[in-house]
Amino acid sequence: MRELNKKYPGLFKYLLLGVLGPLTIIISSLFQNIIIPKEQQGFSYFLNYNFTMPVGTIFFITGVLIGYFWQLNPWKVGLCLFLVFPVTAFIEILIYRGSHNLIPFELLIYFLYALPCIIAVYIGKYISQQRAKRKEKGINQVTNPGT
Q1: Averaged pLDDT of the chain
Q2: Burial call 18-52: b when 16+ CB within 10 Å, e when fewer
Q3: DSSP code of 37?
Q4: What share of residues in the chain are helix, strand, coil (percent, to 5)?
Q5: What predicted TM-score, i.e. pTM, was given to this entire model?
């Protein structure tokens, strides 16, 4: 496991994010009282109906924290957190013939879902870099008080 972590340092974190995304939606569905119409009982409808503004806010905050603490690639983070949406759509295409006949547009919507999270990761990385610069500048001023 240690060799795998050296070879792929962020692999475990990305896998964790792949689980964290759907888990966030599932847990939030327990607190949101959203009723899905009976004719739309697929899992993709469950995901889409439960992706509300509060859940989007949780994803945004998660993105900032990931960018700040883990410094991961923002595009990969967005892909991992929202991978459940396209995967579910493709599984339902295989199970229910004729469903998701506008898949390119759905993929575009899923990208738009992930975009705020991607931006949030960039924000978190920026805050972390600025803090590191200030900390370094503060250390340099302490060691060289004449500058």
Answers
A1: 87
A2: bebbbebbeebbeeeeeeeeeeeebebebbbbbbe
A3: P
A4: 80, 0, 20
A5: 0.86
